Amino acid sequence: MSRETTTEIPTGCPGDEALRAALEAKADSPISAELEAHLATCPSCRDRLEAFAEFGETATLLADFERWSAPSAELDTALRQLVEDGRPGASLLPTPVSRDEILAQFLPCDEPGALGRLDDHLVVHEILGQGGMGIVLRARDTALDREVAVKLLKPAYREFPELIERFREEARAVAALDHENVIPIHQVGILENGLPFFVMPLAKGPTLAQHLRAEGQPSFSESLLIAIRASRALAAAHAAGIIHRDLKPGNLLLGPNSDPGGLWLSDFGLASRAENESETRGGGTPGYLAPEIFAGEKASPRSDLYALGCLFADLAGADAPGWFMELADELRQADSGARPDSADEVVRRLERRVEARESRRLHRRVLVRVSQVLGLFALALASIFFLDLSGRTSLINDTLRTFSGDEFTIAGRFGTYPSLTGAIQATGDGDRVLVHESGPFSLTPTGVRGHSYAVHADPRLDQRPVLEMPDQQIGPAGMLWVQEGDLELSGLELRHHSDREGLNRRIPPLVRTRIGNLRLVNCRLVRSGLRPGSESPLVMLGDCRILEISDCEFQSDNGPCLQWRIQGDLLETGIRMVDSDFQGREWLDIGVATGFDVPLTRLDVTAVRCDVRTPESHAVSFRRTMQPVDLLLETEDCRIATGETGLIGFETGNGPQLRRSVTLRDRGSLFSPALGGPEQARQEWIHRWGDASLDDRTRWVESIDFRSPRSR
């Protein structure tokens, strides 16, 4: 895929044709020293060069398939060089391989939707793309039940045995690098017809080059994290005797949502064993090549360090400190002996800077705390003229936060807190924690026992603060929980995303209460990535007397929105929902535990102007009871779309008993689907729940457009 640039070229910079010619430079006809010197000091031209390299005919194999963001040019450059070195007259055959020719390389497979298989446990489902040397496939590893990316050598190169062996040897070398910041290669193999392949994960983030073009330079804190991860990956490669030879932003893969913490070093296409570096070979990206490579010397770990310095220069924004630019300049010294001794040394120097930054931050915090204590009385006296006798302290706490940088306070109390966990643990009965910044904040399960508390967004914020639960959390405790007390949440967004496929574990709910009331106002609760059939709800309530939900949004891809369990001695309990949106496997999962003496006589559920979407199931599950429990479900002006099982489902075996204890009433709601047609659906409702259970405004339709405003 090609891309034309419309960007005006600055005065003194080479034209597009000169940069494209640089991409074709080889060891026997390198680019000029003048152009190389310009590229070393001009980020704009390096960006243009990266764009040509990524979107040209020699481009990233998956440039047209960004949804996979898989490592896309692994070994392509090395294969090209081998063909040119070993067979001078050989053509690179850039013409794409036809689909029929690709399918002809696969073994038969009877799995539905499969294109074929590569071996006993690799089933191919999609041809993602192809480049000059390889074909990239999306496949499923049936042995481990996971999706993978497979790189397969093009059939035209089957006649080059030395190329095939080099392909396999380099892939095995990279596969031996067991490091969190080096892209893993799961398997190296060869087909029955002689074509080699290797298997990698399907990465979920963009390259650093793509991220820099889309978002610009990151903050220095993020840049420092990327620099450390890249240096560690390079140190691991050097420790294994591998020279990367093509370190650049386009070969660094970020994690999901451009997370630098999940960085992978990829594209070892030019990599070589240090002991095999007996002769010079061309390749690499102009702007990142060390001067000694242009002088005809062989690549070494120190030439990789030069590219690392160029990467640091790309990451350095206006907020980068002087020491970081000095390190970038030291790495880019023309004399390789003047560069740091190793990538390990670079890692140590960066980590010492991080430790120093943290130490200074801690020191400043201690000084701030001391100054808070020493100046507290003076500050209180100065502020008392601005406060009334109600005990409000927002002015004082706002002043304290400007010095401490803390984001959390407790309404009506002096002091600030650096974490939400610390603020919640400091609450007394009825206290209200205020969140003053939008975050996102990472929050492990946090709560209290024996008293009530609330968490509210600062009303001056323009958007909801985001609380995120780390994916590794397991167990029954909610991200926010209370036992034997009430909980109120207002103006917050709680979310959790799981990337761990097939892991059998108990994932905590986002909110959990036990023996107490819950109130949610203007909140958004989102959970994604759950495997089908998960029992992990967004909100879990045990013996909750009253649940109030107003102006909220619930979204779960495979779990229930609300799970209600009754085990204690409640006589009456109720749920009221107004102006809220629910999307999940189920809207309400209601259960009365067996084996308990539960004298509950009535459960009232009311929903007004709510949208409910449970397309794969019924909206309400009612199950597990040993004695009659009356359930009254009232809906008004709602829009409810369910699976074909209808609005409410009963546990197998107890259905007749449960159905007799349920009363449904609706006023003016819209239901879907209308099985048998709108009139038949209405008559079946009346037959089951009685004529008085609905009014003339209640309607059934085949489908509901939730994007349209609700009719009044």
Task: Summarize the topology.
Blueprint: H1 16-23, H2 33-41, H3 43-55, H4 76-86, H5 99-103, E1 116-117, E2 122-130, E3 134-141, E4 146-153, H6 161-175, E5 187-190, E6 196-201, H7 208-215, H8 220-239, E7 242-243, E8 252-253, E9 264-265, E10 272-273, H9 291-294, H10 301-315, H11 322-331, H12 343-383, H13 394-404, E11 408-410, H14 420-425, E12 431-435, E13 441-442, E14 446-449, E15 453-457, E16 466-468, E17 480-483, E18 487-490, E19 493-497, E20 511-514, E21 518-521, E22 524-528, E23 539-542, E24 546-550, E25 553-556, E26 562-566, E27 572-578, E28 581-583, E29 588-592, E30 602-608, E31 611-614, E32 620-623, E33 630-636, E34 639-642, E35 648-650, H15 655-660, E36 662-667, E37 670-672, H16 678-689, E38 699-700
Parallel strand pairs: 12-15, 13-16, 14-17, 15-18, 16-19, 17-20, 18-21, 19-22, 20-23, 21-24, 22-25, 23-26, 24-27, 25-28, 26-29, 27-30, 28-31, 29-32, 30-33, 31-34, 32-35, 33-36, 34-37, 37-38
Antiparallel strand pairs: 1-2, 2-3, 3-4, 4-6, 5-6, 7-10, 8-9, 11-12
Helix pairs in contact: 1-3, 4-6, 8-10, 8-12, 10-11, 12-13
